[in-house]
Design brief:
The chain is of the alpha+beta class and 199 residues long. It contains six helices and four strands; from the N terminus they run αααααββββα. Strands 1, 2, 3 and 4 form a four-stranded antiparallel beta sheet that branches. The two termini are 31 Å apart. The relative contact order is 0.11.
């Protein structure tokens, strides 16, 4: 098991260097955010690594064990807004990690999807992500409203690509689109990653 402090220090230094050298400074009207762009990206990456399945769980984890690393932690609602605002920075950081970790050199990659609910399926109205989220079936969740997350992972667990679509989309067309975008990349959808270098 990896010790949290060295891992977090290494991750935060890597993210901070990447944000300073590879991302343009984001214009931010109004007062300065409590957390820097690199701190938000570090927290967003730390959550899944710890197996935290919700924004609330990530906030609790940042409040207690990580309080010394993030002393200027804003309220949970503000942190959630900042996490959503840094989606492009997260994708931009994750893509260079794949070749850095030599993740494409594996003998194979596993591709699987998991339902990501955005609201209660029984509620009426457009809800969050109208036009992108829909109702669909997941073996883990049953009927849900949201998006399925399709993810490619190499044998040691490094994510090499991800994408999502409406929950009403079947896995096969979603995977076909995923592979087509890997073969002919589209600048608007970089998160699918590149094809594996192995067979």
């Amino acid at each position: 098991m990896v010790d949290v402090d060295p891992f977090l220090t290494t991750l935060s230094v890597m993210v901070d260097d990447f944000c300073k050298t590879s991302l343009p400074p984001a214009p931010h009207p109004g007062p300065q955010a409590a957390l820097s762009q690199s701190a938000v990206v570090t927290l967003a990456l730390c959550g899944p690594w710890q197996g935290l399945g919700s924004e609330r769980g990530l906030y609790r984890y940042a409040q207690r064990p990580l309080q010394a690393a993030f002393p200027q932690l804003p309220t949970r609602e503000q942190l959630n807004r900042q996490l959503r605002h840094q989606h492009a920075a997260l994708v931009a950081f994750f893509l260079p990690l794949v070749p850095l970790l030599a993740a494409q050199r594996g003998a194979y990659e596993a591709l699987d999807s998991s339902g990501g609910p955005t609201r209660d399926v029984k509620r009426r109205g457009a809800g969050w992500l109208p036009g992108r989220a829909a109702s669909g079936w997941s073996n883990r969740l049953g009927w849900y409203a949201g998006v399925p997350l399709l993810m490619a992972v190499n044998p040691v667990g490094v994510r090499t690509g991800l994408g999502c679509g409406p929950a009403s989309t079947k896995d096969q067309p979603l995977a076909a689109t995923f592979f087509a975008l890997r073969r002919q990349p589209h600048p608007g959808l970089p998160s699918v990653g590149s094809p594996a270098l192995g067979p």
